[in-house]
Every structure is written in structure tokens, then in C-alpha cells.
Write a structure and sequence with these properties.
about 375 residues; Arc Repressor Mutant, subunit A; 3-stranded antiparallel beta sheet; globular; alpha/beta
């Protein structure tokens, strides 16, 4: 497949061959090298319109497949095709799955069994700033991976909340994945934080693709397509987040919406979603209940931290996902103060627990 990958990359450089036309090519030709070298009549037989086939033949003369492969290597980008076993299973089920995905970070996140999209307005209110982490962080602690679009506002806060909770998050771009193309540029530090925390950044657009306006509705189907459901937190009547929600419905996925003030324009979209049948959400528990995810609870239970010493075992029994002050840990564990403080430091270094500040600790899963 590696020998053929460069031809997938080369074809993706021709913007007029999107997911639908790419599908015609990989369904007709035995491999993309054959498609790349095909003549006008064969391209027509595959299903390409005559004008598209003719333009492709002209454009490909200026594209070097070997150079396209070298570009992604230099940018440390991985690429997978819809023919690869590692291609996200949920995404493959949608009507027009991307033929090719450009990826940075942990590829396994794309096939996480418990993936939830969180989207919303770029013009986030104080209410949105409060409610987003209150819902996202417990979901992450319950084993969910959070997918969003790295946009300003709700998207960025959803990613940030997942990172803060030591969880995995996937950012789906409407531009190329090379450093210069990541958009918005103000979120490039956040993008790096996502990768540093074991998350993933993906796009279907090739290196150098600018964040063109029409790219974003296209990428929204990937956000919803990777996920069991989509949660909308604050959305105006014309918000792009509503596009993601309606795409989720088309993909037969769940849609959740957080209600807001009747006087806030950012709540008009979410209220309309609720009127159309989206599940009204007031806490993370509502999502677990609506999805009937006893399985995720069982999954998380099986992933519980295994202490390495008897002291760690005692301390872990005093902790949960709610903050516990060190004084309470000392009291409940009945261990010496110096031993507790030493163990807590070591356990945090191992990633078993997290210090939230003020000597308050939570258990990580």
C-alpha cells in the first residue's frame, strides 16, 4: 500500500476530485497508480465527468507523486486511505467518507469506541465557558474521546478541557495539516498541546490547503462521522455547529443540546435542535443515560488504576473523580503525613492521579 499511497496523495492535490469522485476511482481501478496513469476514456468509464477527466489529465502533469510523499514525511504527517485497516470504522459508515486522511498524533484515537463530538459557537458566552468544561471533563474521565474542530469558542474550550482532564481529543481541520496551514493560527499552541497529551489532529485536505470558507461545512461531516453522537453547546440560528448536528442526524447518530437563556442569541440554535428532537442535556450523566452506555462504565471500571504498593492501594481507595483534599486523604488512609505526600507525588508522576491545586487530588482513569 505504501507504494500506492503517493498516487492517492497526488490525486488529492486536484481539488475537484473530492470524496465522491475519489470513490468512483477507487471502486473502478485496481489501485491509484492505475487511476493516475489512466487515459481520458478510462477515467470517463470510472464515472468522472468528461470536463473533470480532461482537466485532471492536464493538471497531473505538474504534480509529482514522489514529491507529495516526501512532503508529508518532512511534516511528520501520516496518511491513511479508506482501504487501510486502520481507517476509522464509524467514519467509513457515513455517506461520503473521506478517501484519504492526513494525521498527526495517535492514530488509535480515531477508532476509540467512545467518541463524542462537542461543537458550538465561536462567540462563546460566560455561560458557555462555564458549562463546557463541566460536561466535557467528566466525560473524558469516563473514557470518552472528545472530537471538535479547533475553532475559536466552544471548540477550543472543549479541546482544552479534555487536555486539562488528561484525556484524549481529536481536532478536525478545514485546512492542511502542515504548521503554516493550521487555522486559526491563535490555536496552534492548543494544537500542539493536543498532540503532547496523546491526542490527534486530522484533515482530509492536502498540505498547503488554505482554510477556505467552503472547507468547513465539508469537514463537519468528519467531526460527526467519527462520533457516537454530537453535543451542541451554544449555537446561534445560523451557526456552523448546526450543520454538524444535522449531519449527525443524517448519519443516524445521536444529537444532544444544552439549553440556554431565552434572551441569548447563542441559544436560538440549540433550542431549535431540542424542538426538532435533540436530547436536552443538563449534565454529562444525561449523555451516558441517553446513550445507555453501561458498556462504557464497565469499560472504564476495567481500566482502573492498579497500585504498585500497599500504600498506593490505600490512598487510591480514598480517591475518586471528585477533588479530595490531602487532609482528608491522610485522615482516611491513616498513614503518616510524610508517606502520603511522598506517595501522592510519585502517583502523579505515574499519571495515576492529578493535583488540581490547593492540594486537592482526583483519580485518573
Amino acid at each position: 500500500m505504501n507504494d500506492d499511497l503517493k498516487y492517492w496523495l497526488a490525486i488529492s492535490q486536484f481539488a475537484k476530485i473530492g470524496a465522491a469522485r475519489f470513490k468512483k476511482l477507487y471502486n473502478y481501478f485496481p489501485n491509484m497508480e492505475t487511476a493516475w496513469q489512466a487515459g481520458f476514456l478510462e477515467l470517463q468509464k470510472s464515472g468522472l465527468e468528461p470536463n473533470i477527466a480532461q482537466e485532471f489529465i492536464i493538471v497531473r502533469k505538474d504534480i509529482d507523486p514522489d514529491l507529495e510523499l516526501e512532503k508529508i514525511k518532512q511534516e511528520k504527517i501520516e496518511a491513511i486511505t479508506i482501504k487501510d485497516d486502520s481507517y476509522p470504522k464509524l467514519l467509513k459508515e457515513i455517506f461520503t467518507p473521506p478517501a484519504l486522511l492526513y494525521i498527526k498524533g495517535d492514530l488509535q484515537n480515531l477508532n476509540n469506541k467512545f467518541n463524542l463530538a462537542v461543537v458550538g459557537t465561536r462567540k462563546i458566552s460566560n455561560y458557555g465557558k462555564q458549562i463546557t468544561p463541566e460536561i466535557v471533563k467528566p466525560l473524558v474521565q469516563n473514557g470518552f474521546t472528545i472530537t471538535s474542530g479547533l475553532a475559536l469558542g466552544v471548540d477550543a474550550l472543549a479541546h482544552h478541557s479534555a487536555v486539562e482532564a488528561q484525556g484524549k481529543t481529536i481536532a478536525v481541520l478545514g485546512s492542511g495539516l502542515d504548521q503554516k496551514s493550521i487555522y486559526p493560527s491563535s490555536n496552534r499552541y492548543l494544537a500542539q498541546s493536543i498532540l503532547n497529551n496523546g491526542g490527534t489532529i486530522i484533515t482530509e485536505f492536502p498540505i498547503g490547503m488554505l482554510p477556505l470558507k467552503h472547507n468547513f461545512p465539508t469537514r463537519n461531516r468528519i467531526i460527526s462521522g467519527l462520533s457516537l453522537g454530537t453535543l451542541v453547546i451554544e449555537a446561534a440560528e445560523t451557526s456552523g455547529a448546526l450543520i454538524t448536528a444535522f449531519l449527525a442526524l443524517e448519519q443516524n447518530r445521536e444529537v444532544f443540546a444544552v439549553p440556554g437563556s431565552l434572551f441569548n442569541r447563542n441559544s436560538i440554535g440549540t433550542h431549535k435542535l431540542i424542538q426538532k428532537g435533540a436530547k436536552l442535556i443538563t449534565s454529562y450523566q444525561d449523555i451516558l443515560d441517553e446513550l445507555n452506555l453501561q458498556e462504557v462504565k464497565s469499560f472504564v471500571a476495567n481500566q482502573k488504576v492498579l497500585p504498585e504498593t500497599k500504600e498506593e492501594k490505600i490512598i487510591i481507595q480514598t480517591l475518586n473523580h471528585e477533588p479530595t483534599h490531602i487532609d482528608e486523604i491522610i485522615q482516611k488512609s491513616n498513614l503518616p503525613v510524610s508517606l502520603v505526600t511522598g506517595c501522592l507525588s510519585l502517583m502523579e508522576m505515574k499519571g495515576l492521579i492529578k493535583n488540581l491545586g490547593g492540594q486537592n487530588y482526583i483519580l485518573l482513569t
